[in-house]
Batch of 3 targets.
Target 1
Amino acid sequence: MAERGGGSGVGDGRDGRKLNDANSSDQEPVVETASEAKEPPPPDVVHLCRETFQKTAEYLRGEMEGTIEDYKLLENMNKITIAKYSEMKQLAQDISTSLQDLNDKYKTLQPYLEQIDHIEENVSNLEQAAYKLDVYSKRLEAKFRALEKR
């Protein structure tokens, strides 16, 4: 690199022009701009950069495809779940309807069931009476035989 011009660099421009200092206010200050060297990069760097960008693009495409597949899977799962819940809802409605029908039939049969309970109670009472009558008749028969033997 070439060494820059002599002096402190204050007040003199790099391009050889004199910059305004704080004491002279009649002109606007000149600002220096830096410029980069525009040398072309070496071909192997260009090749490596292109390859890196291609590999990164392939990686990102793969990630996006994987994410898309995940969303498709979730969408299918949601559709299946919706169908299953719809079936379950229909089944629950059918069960509810059947249960309501059974309750209505039970209410219709309730008086007959009460009559059956009443008849069962009467039969039980009659059975007890028959048992007592049987015991009494056996005692009576035993007494009659005893009297007959005398």
Target 2
Amino acid sequence: MALPSTPAPNLGPPATPAVAHTPLQQPISGPQPPRPLQREGAIFILSSAEQAIEDAMMRSSPPPERTVLGKRPHQVKDSLDGNDTEHDDEPSSTAVSQSLPSISNVAAAVSRYVSRKKLRPEQRDEVDAFLLDTALGRQAKLFTCILSLENKVDAFRSAAPPYQLSEDLKTNINNYGIAVLLSANISAYKGDVPRNHVLTILKKLRFDLPAGVEHDYASWEKISAYVSYSLTQTRARMKKLIKESLKANTNIFSLAQMIVHPSSCRTTIQLCARVALMRAIHAECSGGEKYWNLIDTRLEFIRTKAGSSPAKTARAFNKILKVDRATYATEEDYEIVDVVAHEVQQRVDDVVAGALDISQNDN
């Protein structure tokens, strides 16, 4: 009986079962959140990354900031998700904006200040443009304004009339000139000494002097010239009264009263002694051209002999006064009361003596 034949083994690759062909899928780099099922007409929910991309595509260019004073500009947030791990050495713009006042706050404050100052509309526009300019631009504008202001001041000065002394100033110069010449501390009656004392008083008390007039050479020269003229007139009046007293045999107290009139000076013993010196020199030189120069020479002689001793100076003038009283109006019985000098005279004496502390309060 014949045996059944067995199939020879297939040495080739094994056959693969037939399967349905499906499209190949790309490998997924990482897990993604499952997209929820949606129905027709439902709202599609985007992921955070997709939402950020869509927002960036839909965002239009930011409008220009408003620059009118008092309007607050809109600030656009620049950061997206805040996941940047890199750190800059410089402070962030947010930190700088928090440490410095915003332009809107400054603009609002300036707008209120401009309103209080009642600037014109065109001036408001200039302030608005100034705020928006760069730091260098603002400095250049400020410097330009300074130069323009200097030009206007120069034009104003050139158009102003020449300076003239007021009548009130002339009256003050006359009165203080008498007080200087009658001061018991004066070292000379002629020349620059009395004039400089009066000018020092004017600089301290000012009266109606324009500000900075002492720096205007032409105007100050007018004031200095009038001071010299006033002192010359006062000396001439004093010399005339002394000459008349020699003829009238007037006592020294009455002569001193006529000299101080109409000023506020009081007839003190020291003043009478000074007038006695003037009359003694007039009797010696008969009132010649060198009269006041001779008085100044006698004053220099007394200072040299007395040195720094006020007591010796006082004794010298007491001697001169005693001789005068023994020479003129001897038959009259009068007394020179030791009164206190007027407050104005005391301040003038301080100036003449070198103490420059003068008060404007006249009682």
Target 3
Amino acid sequence: MEKKQVVIIGAGISGLLACKYCLSKGFDPIVFESQADIGGVWVKTVKNTRLQSFKGSFQFSDFPWPSSVTEDYPTQPQLLDYLKSYAVHFDLMNHIQFNSVVKGIEYLGPSLQETCPHGKWKVTVENSQSTQVHDADFVILCVGRFKDFPNVPEFDHGSGPEVFGGKVIHSMEYAAMDHDRAEEFVKGKRVVVVGFQKQALDIAMECSSINGTENPCTVVYRNNRWKLPDFCPWGIPLSYLYFNRFSELLVHKPGEGFLLGLLASILSPLRWGISKLVETHIKRKIPLAKFDMVPKSSFSKDLRSGLLSAISEDFFNRVETGSILLKRSPGFKFYKDGILIDGEIKPTQTDIVILATGFKGIQKLQNIFVSQDFRNFIARSPNFRVPLYRECIPPRIPQVAIIGFSESVSNLFTSEMRCRWVVGLLDGKFKLPSIKEMEKDISNWDKYMKEYGGEYHLRSSIFGLDIWYNDQLCKDMGWNHRRKNGMWDELFEPYGPMDYPNP
């Protein structure tokens, strides 16, 4: 039987995995990468960027980290070397076309019915020499949501960057600079960083290291969030509190039966207690109360919303010494010499404003599709998350998978499971249910994400429910979803990529 022609867009972590598993089943995939190298978001980062996840949970199931990497949280160069070694080991580089920008994908075939149609995708690719159109039976989108399409706040006329006499850039532009140029850009300058997630913290730390107290870095942010100074609250690894089967018994899960639902309700006080345990540890390690930074939301909510990030204890040392200034406010306005923060009378004078305000991942995903109908399926309205069955398949867009768009405790680990599942689908190991059944399953996950993530459900985070999610993938593929030896280990030992080396 003739094998399907598979096109993969993006050669970040998900794209490499998709290519590797397609090759393992005899497919001949083509990978189009817009950059000159593999690695996706890891190609260009702030100098001091490290992996937030423990390396043991952020590794390929059949290609562990080399013994030369002794750090638990490797640096960006170490991670890139690891990804390149993986690509070379599995001979992936020959299947990747670099500096190739996909301008759009267009579906040609019968209208979408309850059964899967058999059309073709036309993939338009542009490089420095030409524009070509490639045919594909199936397209795997591995474009990520934290890259290329910066989210820039909107301002009223006369109060935006246009009136500011200094420079305004997005964090994406800062990360794209080589390290020497980035240092020169902020050296001796008064810098304001807008945002309080991982990239904002990394940039603020770098600016404070360069300029010290002479030109402190001001961080402007909206909401207090729980930050982890370490991953062992009160000496207990966080994975034993949130990433084993027992921890998942404490929450209501999509598609659960009556008994599991009843058990989650009975155990809800324990869920609250574990969250409080972690919160007390964090407040003991970093001076949140001193700086009026204790979040209103629970630690558990921030974790399950995918809003959690690590923070160096040295960050608050720098706040104490004055090389980092913190300003919490719902907004600000630009003026000629700086910004005026809401609620303050005195303007903050500044030379550079760096907007670490995230990315428009949904818009980026929409723009790949030529069809307006398909664009509408991706984003029905601002209040709906991208509808993906098993967080991979858009039910109303045929012959397409989207990998790496929803978040998890270890995006590499989760992307690997998803790629194995998608390739199993392509290889005929199982079939998709009807569109109606897929949309019902998506609705169940929507309910879970709204219950535990609240207004942040659009992030499509499966944090803290990774095992339940992987169980579903395993069952679809015909794998045994219980991977541990013995009931005790099955219930209390954390799960990781090395639990899934093979079916």
